[in-house]
Amino acid sequence: MTTVQVPTIKLVIDGQFVESKTDQWRDVINPATQEVLAKVPFATAEEINAAVASAKNAFNTWRKTPIGTRARIFLKYQQLIRENMQELAALLTAEQGKTLADAEGDVFRGLEVVEHAASIGNLQLGELANNVANGVDTYTLLQPIGVCAGITPFNFPAMIPLWMFPMAIVTGNTFVLKPSEQDPMVTMRLVELALEAGIPAGVLNVIHGGPDAVNGICDHKDIKAVSFVGSTHVGTHVYNRSSLAGKRVQCMMGAKNHGIVMPDANKEQTLNAIAGAAFGAAGQRCMALPVIVLVGEAQSWLPELVAKAKTLKVNAGCQAGTDVGPVISKQALARITELIDSGVSEGATLDLDGRNPTVPGFENGNFVGPTLFSGVDTSMRIYQEEIFGPVLCVMHADNIEQAIELVNANPNGNGTAIFTRSGATARRFQEDIDVGQVGINVPIPVPVPMFSFTGSRASKLGDLGPYGKQVVQFYTQTKTVTARWFEEDEEVGALNTTISLK
Predict the structure, then answer these.
(1) pTM summary value
(2) Separation of alpha carbons 223 and 228, rounded Å
(3) 286 is known as an active-site residue
(4) Given 148, 218, 251, 286, which residue is catalytic?
(5) What are its GO biological-process terms (predicted)?
């Protein structure tokens, strides 16, 4: 019997793709077929230290690289991503499971941040106040802070790395990236393209691993800032441990997003939006819409919502016409199934059961179909926990006041949406809702890169979000300079050392 050799995922240290010397490896598995696509190393402590040392050394020269030179690298990088879009999407679908259309969307939303990074010349500007006192000017410099690191999740293996390292690097920092160990292949291809675009050796390094690698990043004295996207449990650990080590930290974490459906909403558009937001990407999005609150007469829409969900096709992401692909792993499938079981046992009405779907040709896949519960209340696990699967909880409210109160009582604050034709209702909602990102007839209100990702409350730790204006502040240190220049023949008293602002 012939043993099939699978490729090994490399580390990137000082611009070189390096085979790890570790004795700990994990299989990268196609979630639709269980095929082993590659093996990913859990980097040793020495390899992690080497990656950070490379980044620290490169920072000495990269920080002084002209801003136009940095911007042009990312102009080239966005071109390379566009040219390789189909290859990137196919890689992503194979290892993560989402449909090819979703995979292209994953890459494209990251590409938008790369394009934004190319405009750094207009973003990294300081301020100047002329003549604040006699002959005195005050101005600020936004300077890079040093070695930064990013820890990314499995659900967006293209987009979220591209949220992180382009903005960190273009602002003059160097970077150590730890991709998800579950699906690192598309991330590594993006790193290859970044180096091809001209990112110098040591400016972008990659390590792989699990908890030890995460802790290594949190603890390393030469890493100045850490970005994280993932679960609340891990994000809280990363924030606390990194903060205690004196680092800047931004952690985007778990969610339980609610959509409010008013009876005056456009029914067909709203039902389509809900189906896509609740079940697309197999529900594996922190900005998914797993809870719908039907207000007043909109409660009669439930049968049509169930009918819409039934039309969605479950299949491997690489197959044409697929709406819902597999979830990432057997462990994720078991957890989602157990939560569906809990909803039944706790008294919710299971209007659509997606457990154990039949998917011809992919019998070993990690599939769960669209699942819909009604009669859900806030005491149930399916409401309290982030399911991260294609499961929709439907709740009821008599009026907009009740709906807002329900959303605000939930501890998470990543995103929310309202569906209505009333401008007055929408405005009231956006003012009174205590959630960081609001959609008005937009089910997944992730902002474009000119704005920052602004999840709030239990969904976020740290003051500044990814990309947009906020992330320029996160990755730079503001230095304030107060300067006074004298004519060569001007005499100044020896004791005149204090600037008077009177």
Answers:
(1) 0.95
(2) 14
(3) yes
(4) 286
(5) L-valine catabolic process; thymine catabolic process
